[in-house]
Amino acid sequence: MSRTDAPRAATVRVPAKVNLALRVGPPDPDSGYHPLATVFHAVDLCDEVTVRRARSTSLQVTGPFREGVPADPTNLAWRAAELLRENYARTCGVRRPSPVAITLEKNIPVAGGMAGGSADAAGVLLAANELWGEELTPLDLQDVAAELGADVPFGLMGGNALGLGRGDELSTVLSQGELHWVFCVATAGLRTPDVYRELDRQLGWDGPPTPETSAARTAAPEPPQELLQALRTGDPHEIARHLENDLQAPALALQPGLQATLDAGREVGAVTGLVSGSGPTVALLCESREHAIDVSVGMAALRPEIQVFTATGPAPGARVVDTRH
Ligand SMILES: C[C@](O)(CO)[C@H](O)COP(=O)(O)OP(=O)(O)OC[C@H]1O[C@@H](n2ccc(N)nc2=O)[C@H](O)[C@@H]1O
Ligand SMILES: Nc1ncnc2c1ncn2[C@@H]1O[C@H](COP(=O)(O)OP(=O)(O)OP(=O)(O)O)[C@@H](O)[C@H]1O
């Protein structure tokens, strides 16, 4: 489908995520990537991504979490724009489309385990495709997204999804109602590869396989069936019983102070808490929107040094919110 009235600028909103379950298998010896069985849950904390036609690619970062975000070609959003341009040339047999000036409004904590950079990359893919005439289908965009990073396809999809493979083989998960959260942002971030490396160290997956470990080292983790069932009930207490994260222990080993945040969450009455993805953001599950506000006030009183905010899921994936002609 080609459009003649393509806009000159497009703005997209893309949600952050928390993994309700994150089961990690031993790393593939060739790629180093770990097979996952994860349940992604998008929350209504969104980055806003705007792209405009320009003479050369550029990037401007604004918003409360702009600090520490590179405004150069290493930014995943910049790489997304370049990769999509190449794909237009390859897939559509056309000249590379015009470069784009990108603006990111960072509302998602950086290096927090909430897939903020991935959200921005997903946002650029959707916004630039809008600008360049929607030549690529949603399926094409998912393929480009998976090339950029394991979390990027879910940024496009949103909602609740089961992620297998590297976390990029997605299928929709049915759920009832909404979940209400308080997110506690640590002052220092964690690098995702460091957390996976720490997991490997803890489980002895960093050395060559022995006869005892070799069978386990070929196993991909099973999807968390009990959590999938609990999500269909919509009951936060039932769901809380089945939340799990294999990266929590390594994240706690790298940032031992996170345990105090989890304990404080319990103390102020959250249903339960877990580390979000590779951390260090801590996600506290609450009973309702009002309860989440109470828990956030309790956390602010108990741990004033920690930044907290409330959010609700499941939220929709990347969506165009504005276009200008
Ligand atoms: C922790 C999660 O956020 C959970 O959803 C993801 O697994 C991380 O996804 P991501 O940051 O988009 O990951 P990528 O950018 O593709 O990879 C960053 C690094 O994470 C590690 N990585 C990531 C995904 C995966 N299935 N196995 C891995 O080992 C690898 O060390 C890789 O070099
Ligand atoms: N658009 C971006 N936004 C934030 N960080 C970015 C971006 N592009 C590149 N980076 C770099 O990537 C690092 C990790 O960023 P990000 O916020 O995506 O981490 P994360 O949310 O923990 O990722 P994930 O949950 O997908 O593992 C940052 O420290 C920063 O140096």
How would you explain this protein's 3D organization?
This protein has helices at 76-92, 116-131, 138-148, 152-157, 192-203, 211-214, 225-233, 236-240, 248-254, 258-267, 289-302; strands at residues 9-24, 36-53, 58-62, 100-105, 160-164, 169-172, 179-185, 244-245, 272-275, 282-286, 307-313, 319-324. The chain is globular and about 55 Å long. The chain has one domain (1-325): 2-Layer Sandwich (Alpha-Beta Plaits). The chain is 34% helix and 26% strand. It has eleven helices and twelve strands. The strands form two sheets. Strands 1, 2, 3, 4, 5, 6, 8 and 12 form an eight-stranded mixed β-sheet that branches. Bound molecules: 4-diphosphocytidyl-2-C-methyl-D-erythritol (CDM) and adenosine-5'-triphosphate.
Give the tally of β-strands: 12
Rg computed from alpha carbons, rounded to a whole number of angstroms = 20 Å
| Percent range for β-strand residues | 25-35%
Count of folded domains? 1
Mean residue pLDDT:
94
CATH superfamily: GHMP kinase, C-terminal domain
Keywords: ATP-binding, Isoprene biosynthesis, Kinase, Nucleotide-binding, Transferase
Function: Catalyzes the phosphorylation of the position 2 hydroxy group of 4-diphosphocytidyl-2C-methyl-D-erythritol.
Region (Disordered): 204-223
Family: Belongs to the GHMP kinase family. IspE subfamily.
